[in-house]
Amino acid sequence: MGEGPDPRLIQLVMALRGAGVTDARVLGAIERTPRDLFVPEQFAGRAYEDRALPIDCGQTISQPYVVAMMTQALEVDDRCKVLEIGTGSGYQAAVLARLARRVYTIERYRTLLKEAEARFAALRLTNIVTRIGDGSKGWPEQAPFDRIIVTAAAPERPDELLKQLKDGGVAIAPVDAGEGRQALIRYRRKGDEFVEERLFDVRFVPLIKGEARAL
């Protein structure tokens, strides 16, 4: 018989529910995704705290509350083809993979992508497609996407990515809101128009344009 879920994971899910994450499918995906696999070994003891933690290449793994709220706001179902910009540790992609038909994820740091791919393999998540590259350009060869999620802060509305969204699709992105603040924005595509909704303030590493890094 296998062991049950980590009690710390159950406690985290309960805390997220109490904090306003109401989508049972999102909570179930987080409960089935052991966050300790996605953090550096020295932070394993803090993996289930509701806080961001540092990972390699000067990046971070997002706070579980932010991951859950972004996932909930994305309105993913099992028919969705999702594009993620910024694989990082792979945690957000792993959560999405339990909800979506397929997840396409781009990372500019080779070290991070290789580590994330190993985690996906360990969890037997076979519906994630990875790519090393400039996330700001999206993945035009695979467009259009039903959903797009950006896990780094864009300096302005990410039009290059929004063009790769299907009509009726939804995108979530942190965007510079001035005065050192970032706002999480939800975009809904209606023909050639994008309806914007500001959700809440966040803090992400910046979205960097340019060639991928060999680090």
Give descriptors for this structure:
single chain; 215 residues; Rossmann fold; seven-stranded mixed beta sheet; 9 strands
Blueprint of the fold:
Layout: H1 7-18, H2 24-31, E1 53-54, E2 60-61, H3 64-74, E3 81-85, H4 91-97, E4 102-107, H5 110-122, E5 128-132, E6 145-150, H6 159-162, E7 165-178, E8 181-190, E9 193-202
Parallel strand pairs: 3-4, 3-6, 4-5, 6-7
Antiparallel strand pairs: 1-2, 7-8, 8-9
With strands numbered from the N-terminus, the spatial order across the biggest sheet is: 5-4-3-6-7-8-9
Strand content: 25-35%
Distance between the termini: 41 Å
The SSE string, one letter per element, is HHEEHEHEHEEHEEE
Shape, principal axes of CA atoms = globular
Q: Based on the structure given, which CATH architecture is correct?
A: 3-Layer(aba) Sandwich
**The CATH fourth-level homologous superfamily:** Vaccinia Virus protein VP39
Low-confidence stretches: none
> Given this structure, which CATH class is correct?
Alpha Beta
Structure description:
The protein has 215 residues and is α/β, with parallel strands linked by helices. The chain has a single domain, classed as Rossmann fold (3-Layer(aba) Sandwich), CATH 3.40.50. Helix content is 26%, strand content 28%. It contains six helices and nine strands. The protein has a seven-stranded mixed β-sheet, covered by helices on one side. A two-stranded antiparallel sheet has the order 1-2. α4 links the parallel β3 and β4 (102-107). α1 runs antiparallel to α2. The longest helix has 13 residues, at 110-122. The radius of gyration is 16 Å and the shape is globular. 40% of the residues are buried. The mean pLDDT is 93.
